């Protein structure tokens, strides 16, 4: 299982700390809106209890929301707080969805709120993408909004 690298984790945490009632939307023209949303709690993993968070860029096309991309993450905080960055925070990318191309890749299976199976090659690829995407989010100024 691959975790976000330290730089991407810090960016993710800055976004996560801005959630208002489990939701965040950032408008950053000329770029697509960025949203973050709490999805489920809890998912039990070998690393501890995790919450599930969605992060996505999107646009509207013919009345349909097009995610470009949407990713889901398991967020495990061994200290049970995330107000200040700490090395105990672990973030696991596990789902990649690109609606305009019909791509949907889920690298884990949960049963009864327990992580039961992992596709390690796919999950590693998703982590590499998420690391780059989060740096791109920072570099495009989403954290300054």
UniProtKB/TrEMBL annotation:
Highest taxon of source:
Bacteria
Which Pfam families does the UniProt entry name for this protein? DUF6908
InterPro entries attached here?
DUF6908
Q: What residue stretches are annotated with the DUF6908 domain?
A: 8-142
Q: What is this protein called?
A: DUF6908 domain-containing protein
């Amino acid at each position: 299982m691959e975790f976000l690298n330290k730089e991407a984790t810090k960016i993710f945490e800055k976004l996560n700390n801005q959630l208002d009632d489990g939701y965040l939307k950032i408008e950053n023209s000329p770029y697509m809106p960025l949203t973050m949303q709490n999805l489920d709690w809890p998912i039990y993993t070998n690393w501890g209890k995790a919450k599930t968070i969605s992060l996505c860029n999107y646009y509207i096309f013919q009345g349909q929301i097009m995610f470009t991309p949407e990713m889901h993450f398991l967020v495990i905080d061994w200290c049970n707080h995330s107000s200040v960055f700490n090395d105990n925070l672990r973030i696991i990318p596990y789902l990649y969805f690109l609606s305009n191309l019909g791509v949907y890749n889920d690298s884990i299976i949960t049963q009864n709120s327990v992580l039961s199976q992992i596709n390690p090659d796919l999950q590693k690829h998703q982590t590499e993408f998420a690391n780059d995407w989060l740096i791109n989010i920072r570099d495009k100024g989403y954290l300054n909004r």
